[in-house]
Design goal:
The protein has about 210 residues and is α/β, with parallel strands linked by helices. The chain is built from 6 helices and 14 strands. The strands form 3 sheets. The protein has a 6-stranded mixed sheet, covered by helices on one side. Strands 7-8-9-10-13-14 form a 6-stranded mixed sheet. Strands 11-12 form a two-stranded antiparallel ribbon. This is MBL fold metallo-hydrolase.
């Protein structure tokens, strides 16, 4: 499985394209808002002859959903989220103009994800872990074979997701990290929603919130 990261919008959000040698691809958290950002995403897909088969959100804060409508319409795929984050998604339409995104277009979920489900594309399988705390319906995607987590805004290099937004809770987030992510092998690479990748082992040793 190849992980491609494209960073979009003023929040510097990491949009991920996951694909394997079958050229089937899933898009996770498309943050593309401006036209040039959308064109960059589309060009990568076309240049690599990828077939996008699924559109997933780790969670539905504005910076992670700005490109949902574009990807759904361009690639003819339905949005998949955890049901506990549907209200988070629906609220974006209300506050987007105040955040400087007056042209935001809402894309509602076509289906829902839950812990224990397996996301399949090409020859690849991703396990879903429910990891609330930053957002009420946050999930992460784990590829056991490649030892990779696409982690949204749960765990960052030397930091954690903020918990002062609606539906956030510090204790819940710490529990999610300790009981879900920190049970994975130390060599697992975490690809977060912002900033550089890290590893489980590094964060166990150095993350000031989790020592």
């Amino acid at each position: 499985m190849k992980v491609t990261c494209l960073t979009f919008n003023p929040f510097q959000e990491n949009t991920y394209l996951l694909h394997d040698d079958t050229n089937e691809c899933i898009v996770v958290d498309p943050g593309c808002y401006e036209q040039h950002e959308r064109e960059q995403l589309k060009k990568y897909i076309e240049d690599n002859s990828l077939k996008v088969t699924r559109l997933l959100n780790t969670h539905c804060h504005i910076d992670h959903v700005l490109g949902n409508k574009f990807v759904a319409a361009t690639c003819k795929v339905g949005l998949e989220i955890h049901p506990e984050d549907e209200q988070t998604l629906r609220s974006v339409q209300v506050y987007a103009p105040a955040y400087g995104f007056p042209l935001y277009q809402e894309e509602l979920p076509a289906s829902f994800l839950k812990e224990g489900d397996v996301v399949k594309f090409g020859n690849t399988k991703l396990q879903i872990f429910f990891t609330p705390g930053h957002a009420p319906g946050h999930v992460v995607f784990y590829n056991e074979q490649e030892k990779i987590v696409v982690g949204g805004d749960v765990l960052f290099k030397n930091s954690i997701g903020r918990t002062d937004l609606p539906g956030g809770d510090f204790d819940t987030l710490i529990k999610s990290i300790r009981t879900k992510l920190f049970t994975l092998p130390d060599e697992v690479t975490v690809y977060p929603g912002h900033g550089p990748e890290t590893t489980i082992g590094y964060e166990k040793k150095y993350n000031p919130f989790l020592r």
